[in-house]
Amino acid sequence: MGFVSIHTPKLLASSSEGGSAVFRLDYEGQPVCLAQSPQLHKQMAICGDLRRVFVVGPVFRAEDSFTHRHLCEFVGLDAEMEIYKDYSEIMDLVDELFVFMFTELNEKCKKELEAVGKQYPFEPLKFLEKTLRLTFEEGTQMLKEAGVEVDPLGDLNTESERKLGQLVLEKYKTEFYILHRFPTAVRPFYTMPCADNPLYSNSFDVFIRGEEIMSGGQRVHVPEVLEKRARECGIDVKTISTYIYSFKYGAPPHGGFGVLGWSEW
Length: 265
Prior knowledge:
This protein is α+β, with helices and mostly antiparallel strands.
């Protein structure tokens, strides 16, 4: 599909995602951290006219790894691409990519799946030929109708995500779906707000059996807006000056996604 494989730095001057889940250390008297994602550098690659890039490499998160869904280090798949019309193009790619993966696994890896099933019994994944898409507002409305109260401008907690997964399976007969237009307040600083309502953003999460496996969306490509958003999120703009500078000469609308650690799902 025209994507170029790139390799990005894993030792950064500032966190790539913001927040507290970052490993910090000292390097030659300067504070640095391990990359939470290749996000900033894959965007810089788009500014360099590569148009479509992907990264397969280590990701570091200073999270509680003693759960079945968290890892402090994993191998992630990230992709970034130019957008020609709107961020639905990214969701189209996710839809096509993962339906292809699920179908090929079922058709070409039957023996391997049977071997895994003997040690770890599992039910075949239920997914649709055309992946279901729900807006965040539609998802919270389904939860509300089921008696689960959630903040319409907040994020979903683990229990809410699992409950929504159950509701989606019952109503749409699928365990794989996309939830999009998340509240801007709960997304990273580089996420593009919706043009029709800045309280929401051009972003999405992807779920399997009620658990998030991927997040993505359209990025802010205007340097002045990036600086403003970074400051609002408590990020020292000086530490990401090279990243912001890469947009000074113009950048195409773009977006992408990051798939969480394979062993998480």
